[in-house]
Amino acid sequence: MKKVISITIISFICMLLTACSSSGNVVTASKQKMTDAAKEPAQRTELESDAEEAQMPVFLPETEQQTEAEPVDAHSDILVAYFSATGTTKGVAEKIASITGADLYEILAAEPYTADDLNYSDPGSRATTEQNDKNARPAIGSSDISLEGYSTIYLGFPIWWGEEPRILDAFVEKYSFEGITVIPFCTSGSSGIGRSGTNLEALAGNGSWLAGERFSGSVSEDELQSWMEGLK
Ligand SMILES: Cc1cc2nc3c(=O)[nH]c(=O)nc-3n(C[C@H](O)[C@H](O)[C@H](O)COP(=O)(O)O)c2cc1C
């Protein structure tokens, strides 16, 4: 009987020793992970370490997740493209861009217009000669622009002899306005926009063209704002 009791006590002591030894392995493994973490502190967050020890998936807050980089050339979907020989239309274009947050693109003549070129009292001046020739297409000097990504274009110009300058004809023939709403606007001494918008629409051959509007150089941002709100 004594023998039986002794064997039982010895077996119990052995079981106790085995249990202690397994629990020690878990601690060792955990310590090993902490050692690894200490080796790469810059690449490990506390969240990741905790999750790894607990064998859980890591759900980082949104700000810490890797996101795709923003395209470098992100721009507005509105463009204000304009030609201005003496700065009046440019001023209005800048106001429209400021109200709408649009991008600005200046249509420059490859050969800039001099004061003599613009002399409308001279029937032989460059501007007058060009306006008398429906097929005149003065070369554009500004860098090409991609219209991709623009849904609306405000197209500005001065009135020359009752119409759009021929360089505007060159501009609309050069680009495609497919899928774009085009809103013509002009400045002038007193004439209205007349048939300029419809001329440009016909030459462009595509795009959705709204009726244009004439402004004086001193038009206010409030006036421009209410014009925009009434556009259909
Ligand atoms: C060659 C030429 C012809 C013009 N013809 C007209 C016209 O027919 N009606 C009018 O009201 N103003 C006319 N103007 C005045 C311009 O339309 C006006 O000064 C315009 O605001 C100028 O814009 P810009 O400074 O952007 O070039 C003419 C100007 C030039 C140079």
Defining traits:
single chain; 232 residues; alpha/beta; Rossmann fold; 2 domains; six-stranded parallel beta sheet; binds flavin mononucleotide
In short:
The chain is α/β, with parallel strands linked by helices. Helix content is 40%, strand content 12%.
Sheet having the most strands = 6 strands, parallel
| Helical proportion, percent range | 40-55%
Using the CA coordinates, give the radius of gyration: 37 Å
> End-to-end distance, in Å?
107 Å
Oligomer: single chain
**Total beta strand runs:** 6
The backbone outline, from C-alpha atoms, is globular
* Poorly predicted runs: 11-54, 56-67
CATH C-level category of the largest domain:
Alpha Beta
Residue fraction in strands: 5-15%
Average of per-residue pLDDT values = 80
The CATH architecture of the largest domain would be 3-Layer(aba) Sandwich
SSE diagram, text form:
Blueprint: H1 2-39, H2 46-53, E1 78-82, H3 88-100, E2 103-106, H4 126-132, E3 152-158, H5 166-174, E4 181-187, H6 196-204, E5 208-209, E6 213-215, H7 221-229
Parallel strand pairs: 1-2, 1-3, 3-4, 4-5, 4-6
Helix pairs in contact: 5-6
Bound molecules: flavin mononucleotide.
